[in-house]
Amino acid sequence: MGSSSAAAPASSKSCPPRPIDLSGRLPIIQVVAGALIDADGRVLIAQRPEGKAMAGLWEFPGGKIEGGEIPEAALARELYEELGIDVCPSCMLPFSFSSHSYADFHLLMPLFLIRNWDGQPRPLVAQDLKWVRPQRLGDYPMPAADLPLVAMLQDHL
Ligand SMILES: Nc1nc2c([nH]c(=O)n2[C@H]2C[C@H](O)[C@@H](COP(=O)(O)OP(=O)(O)OP(=O)(O)O)O2)c(=O)[nH]1
Ligand SMILES: [Mg+2]
């Protein structure tokens, strides 16, 4: 072949910083979350209640996967517990995931897009619920793990 060579692979120096703890000492917490999208293209966010970790921040509804659950089953359970809605697994579209090291645990959280559900979401455990245009999600403080997901939603929706 000729002397021209393919472009060198990008070095790690070009990767934006991401909070990842490679020490292997953090417990992995598996959470699943859903971005409900209404007919106007707005996304539902819920404010974490007082007394819970990250109280006051806005999040995608969802919660921890319990032993033996697949993510879709855990999400259906969480959305019923937190919002009082029924969502069937086939209406959960895998979108992206967060892999983020907090100080005391590593969060692994798939995010599903949901456009169809039964019932009217109610704040059964959150302080408040808001339907927000994707471009306005940045107006609401969210957990650090969610920020890349918000950027991806803003690009996609
Ligand atoms: N549901 C949800 N949790 C998130 C998001 N971003 C993020 O960092 N988290 C973190 C916060 C918590 O540490 C963890 C979820 O735990 P949780 O307290 O909501 O779990 P849960 O609903 O099962 O509630 P609990 O029964 O443990 O009280 O994931 C998000 O967008 N949605
Ligand atoms: Mg929850």
TrEMBL record:
InterPro entries: MutT-like (IPR047127), MutY_C (IPR029119), Nudix_hydrolase (IPR020476), NUDIX_hydrolase-like_dom_sf (IPR015797), NUDIX_hydrolase_CS (IPR020084), NUDIX_hydrolase_dom (IPR000086). Signal peptide: none annotated. SUPFAM superfamilies: Nudix. It catalyses: 8-oxo-GTP + H2O = 8-oxo-GMP + diphosphate + H(+); 8-oxo-dGTP + H2O = 8-oxo-dGMP + diphosphate + H(+). The keyword Phosphoprotein does not apply. GO terms for biological process: DNA repair; DNA replication. PROSITE patterns: NUDIX, NUDIX_BOX. This is 8-oxo-dGTP diphosphatase. It comes from Iodidimonas nitroreducens. The gene is mutT.
